[in-house]
Structure formats: C-alpha cells, structure tokens
TrEMBL record:
PANTHER family: AARF DOMAIN-CONTAINING PROTEIN KINASE 1, ABC1 FAMILY PROTEIN. This is Protein kinase domain-containing protein. The lineage of its organism: Eukaryota, Sar, Stramenopiles, Ochrophyta, Pelagophyceae. Pfam families: ABC1 (PF03109). InterPro entries: ABC1_dom, Kinase-like_dom_sf, Mito_struct-func_regulator, Prot_kinase_dom. GO terms for molecular function: ATP binding; protein kinase activity. Residues 107-347 form the Protein kinase domain.
Length: 347
C-alpha cells in the first residue's frame, strides 16, 4: 500500500522537474539572444541577431509545443511589425503540429463528456498548437468535427507564460527603449490565449458570427453548427464540413471556382463582421476557411475557427469605417483625423 503514495509523489516530482527544465531552457535561450542584441553595434550585426533569435524561438516551439508554439505563431504573423527574419522563420510553425496520444485524448473525452459520447471517433485530420480535430459520428448519425484540447497543454501553460514573462523582463537589460516598444506583445498574447483556451466561448462566438453573416451573405458564407450537448471548455463539437483551403488556388481551378469570387466573399464577410458589427476575426489564416464547391462555379465558404476574436468599441469601429471611407474617396484630411483617433498617427 505504501507504494501508491510513493509513485504519486515520484510522478509529481517528475512533472515539476520537467517544468523547471522547460522554464530554464527558455530563459537561457532568451538570455543568449538578449546578450547578443546588447553587443550588436552595426545593422548587419542586428540582422544576424534577428536570424539567430528567430531560429531559437522556432526550435523552442518545435521542441516543447504548447503555448511556446502558439507564441511563435503569433510573432510569425506580425508582418509589418516584427523583423522579417522572425516572420519568415516562424511562419513554418503554421504547419500542422504533432497530434496527442490517442489514449490520452480518449481519456479526456471520457472525463469531459462521459464514456461513449460518440458512435465512432476517428484519427485526427488536423492538429495545431492548442488542439487537434477529429471526425466522429453522433448516436443519431450526424457527422461532426470534434476539436479536443491537447491533454498535456494545461500542465505547461503556467510555466510557459512565466518563462516568457522572465524573458521580456530581462530584455530591458539589452535596450529599455525597444523593450518599451514591445511591451504590448505579451499582454496581448496572454489575453488571446485565455480566449482560445475556452471552447465554450469559441462556440458562442461561432454562433454569433454565423447569425450575423447569415443576414447579408446567406448560404455563401457560413459557420458550422455547434453541438452544445457535446461541447465543454476543452471540447468543441461542430458539424463536419468538407472542402479545400481558401488559399488553394489549384483546387479552385479544378472545381471551376473563380478565385476572385472566393477572395471577394472572404474579404466581404470579415469586413462585414468588423465594420458593421465590431467583431474582428484575429486569426484568419488559410487553414481556418474551407471552400465547398457546389457545381457550376458556385461554392460555400465555411469559416471554421472562432477562438480568437476582438470586439471593437463603438467609437473605434466608427473611426475605422471613417478611415477606410476617407481613403477610398481620397479625403486625406478626414483620413488623418481618423488615423489620429485610432492612434495610427500623431496629431
């Protein structure tokens, strides 16, 4: 009987040791990068620091996954903000991430939904930094897509955020001015992660976005239905839909779908959500939309991932709309006023 507590504490110590090593490795690599930036004196040396720093972040993300991978993806998406070396190197993290152990996923589903929640659960068809997606069938025969949080993710969230906080704090040693310029990045990332880790919130946002899009776009742009009986904070179940990626122009051509009409539908839908309703899709990469060909050049555009949205304040939404209208009509005086209101420019 004494062996059970011993095994429990040994497992607990193992988890603590792995977390400590993870934090230590991230912090050490961060310190190496900070020291190199501090010693860089020429533009060429700074560019070399960018390349090495981006490679280290990519390697950490690939090694540990989880939030470190999500952070790398976030930095890689900051075109026109982050140095080119970072956006180029980290864009590779957008590719599919490793899937979780099948037994661990099934155990999580049993805990969240109870045993036998699905008639069948098939291997994953997609995997990202936070979750993987598996096709399944409900008892009534409905085909669904089940988004399941990676079982190991929650255990690493706190240590990953702590390691990033330490690195950002230490970055002031290299250049306080640059550290101040990037002070917004970690809080923004943390806020986004909190939203993406709550699949009930994602389901509610999906329903809201779907209802708003239906008003203007009908069956052209749709959101899969949420199955609330099979949804929890860690599991999101939606209708299964088929199609090809929105950025797969070869597939558009094979199915006789005009890529310009697809682009117009996507831009119109996302602009409608943002400018009309103040709901901004903050992660609209190609894997988050599918095009379902319907014959004779017709199609339905499915928007799949609704975990990361931003709600614009009414004044911000009005200023943003005014800015676009002013640019379209070449009213540069009005455009400047709206840009100042949005903090895009100084008065």
């Amino acid at each position: 009987m004494a062996l059970a507590p011993a095994a429990y504490y040994r497992d607990d110590l193992d988890r603590t040791g792995r977390a400590a090593f993870r934090v230590g490795d991230v912090t050490f690599q961060g310190l190496r990068t900070i020291a190199e930036y501090k010693g860089a004196t020429t533009p060429e040396e700074v560019q070399a620091c960018h390349a090495r720093g981006a490679a280290r972040l990519r390697d950490l993300a690939a090694t540990y996954g989880g939030l470190l991978c999500k952070f790398g993806q976030h930095v890689g998406s900051l075109q026109y903000v982050a140095p080119d070396a970072y956006t180029r190197t980290l864009s590779a993290l957008r590719d599919s991430q490793p899937c979780s152990d099948d037994g661990a996923v099934r155990a999580l589903l049993d805990r969240e939904l109870g045993p036998g929640a699905f008639r069948d659960l098939r291997p994953p068809i997609a995997s990202a930094s936070i979750a993987e997606v598996r096709p399944a069938t409900l008892d009534d025969g409905t085909a669904v897509a089940v988004k399941v949080m990676h079982p190991a993710l929650e255990a690493s969230i706190a240590c990953d955020l702590y390691a990033l906080e330490v690195c950002f704090a230490l970055s002031r040693l290299a250049d306080p001015r640059i550290a101040d310029d990037w002070a917004w990045l970690l809080p923004e990332f943390r806020d986004g992660v909190e939203l993406e880790l709550d699949f009930v919130n994602e389901g509610a946002t999906a329903e809201r976005a779907g209802a708003l899009l239906a008003r203007r776009h009908g069956s052209r742009v749709r959101v899969p239905a949420v199955h609330w009986s099979h949804t929890t904070k860690r599991v999101l179940t939606m209708d299964y839909v088929e199609g090809h990626r929105v950025d797969d122009v070869d597939a558009h051509a094979r199915h006789g779908v005009d890529k310009r009409r697809v682009g117009d539908a996507l831009v119109s839908a996302l602009a409608d959500l943002a400018c009309e309703h103040g709901l901004v899709h903050a992660d609209p990469h190609g894997g988050n939309q599918l095009v379902e060909p319907r014959g004779r050049g017709d199609f339905t555009l499915w928007i799949l991932d609704h975990g990361l949205y931003r709600n614009l304040a009414p004044a911000t939404r009005r200023s943003l709309c005014g800015l676009w209208e002013s640019l379209a009509t070449r009213d540069f005086q009005s455009a400047t006023a709206h840009a100042v209101a949005l903090n895009f420019a100084d008065d």
